[in-house]
Amino acid sequence: MQTVHRQLADKNEATESVTRRIAKQLPAKIIIWSFLLFVLVFTLFPVLISVLGSLKTNAEVTAGGTFFPQEWKFSNYLEAWRQADFARFSWNSLFISTMTTVIALLISSMAGYAINRREFPGKRFYMIVQASTMFISIGAVVLRPQFELIVAMNLNASLWGIILILLGSHAAVFFMLIGFYGSIPRELDEAATIDGCSFYGVFFRIILPLLRPGLAVGALFQFRNAWNEYIIPLVFTMTNPKMQTLTVGLANLRYGYNAATQTHLMMAGACISLLPILIVYVFANRSFMQVTAGSVKG
Length: 298
Description:
Belongs to the binding-protein-dependent transport system permease family. Keywords: Cell membrane, Membrane, Transmembrane, Transmembrane helix, Transport. It is a multi-pass membrane protein. This is Carbohydrate ABC transporter permease. It is found in: Cell membrane. There is one protein chain. With 298 residues, the protein is mostly helical. The protein has two domains: 52 residues; 212 residues, MetI-like fold (Orthogonal Bundle). 71% of the residues lie in helices and 0% in strands. It has 14 helices and no strands. The longest helix has 52 residues.
């Protein structure tokens, strides 16, 4: 009987302990969740305004005063697609963004592997050069030299000229992948080398598959940057409108045939341009939380 009473007392004491712990943690959790909810609303509110604005008439968007459309104009998307020639411009943006992402990931992954696994003359200088491209921005000053360089290479009539220029902004992916390389044990390289694998064989057969989470994250950022680029495609496609990207074509929706501002069509075009980024994020998000821990048994 005493044993039963003791067990009940222990249960009551444990329950009270859990209750006190929850009571202490509750204010902190309320603050954290309130902050996260505020950030969520603050982030999604402009997107919601754009989506609703894309379904209004131009007069309703300009006048304001309404949150939901009085008349849902789904035809705005078809009109924006037709006026901005979205089919051609979407293909140009997709080609530029995809090729820039693939080539940048290849260059960054190979350079990061050499930097992380090898010692060679000029290694520190190379790191400084890569870092300088991130922290030193000279903006539009380089547009003219870049354009003259592309013309001299006879790439001004091709999308490859824009791709070549955009590849210069891969330093962020390079440093990101170096961090992922640090989590891959060097014992894998040594074991593969002992088994007869060459330096390139180790990279492509062993390291690259383990680097998929880092490549996915890098692909998301590189694709987003290339997709949203505006100034470089605008400058390099002035003489050839058929090479314009979606961001440049979207800006052309600002004024219609009668020189009136078409805010509703710009919002519809902006919503259309968001879809590829969302699709890439959905696929890349699967790899965000993956780690390489457990690849080597202790």
